[in-house]
Model the fold of this input.
Amino acid sequence: MKHNISCALARDLAPLYAENLVSGETRGELEAHLETCESCRAYYQRITEKMEGDSMETARQEAMEIDYMKRIRVYQRTNAILGGIVSFLLGMLLPVGFLGLSVFVMQSGFSDYHWARLQLMWPIVLLRMAVSGIVVCLIYCGVNRMLRRKFSF
Done:
């Protein structure tokens, strides 16, 4: 039986045939050639096995990349949450720090006057602590979000 295509052309078309990228006429000619030519059929089997191995390796590599990106996202979220908590707590300590600084600047210690004033003003002091904690936390979150947007790929 006479081949309509040569072995060199069949080997050139084999990868395209394996991926279904040839026309119907070319497919028919190539299938007829592969039925009669043992060396081209063996070549086609080798490249399809290699393509299957490559596709499995590519899928495994993509899965590893996705897992890596998920771990990065979890790490970023954890850092953002912990940073927000720490900034809130540090912000809450600002009014206490100012109060302590004023006491130590006077170098008289914590007098009865300051103690009585603190007992009367404790709701306001707690409110100031909460507000300053929230403000510092919002500043931290805003800067963190801005940096993530700027440096994300």
About this structure: The chain has a mean pLDDT of 80. The first helix runs from residue 7 to 18. Residues 14 and 44 are 6 Å apart (CA to CA).
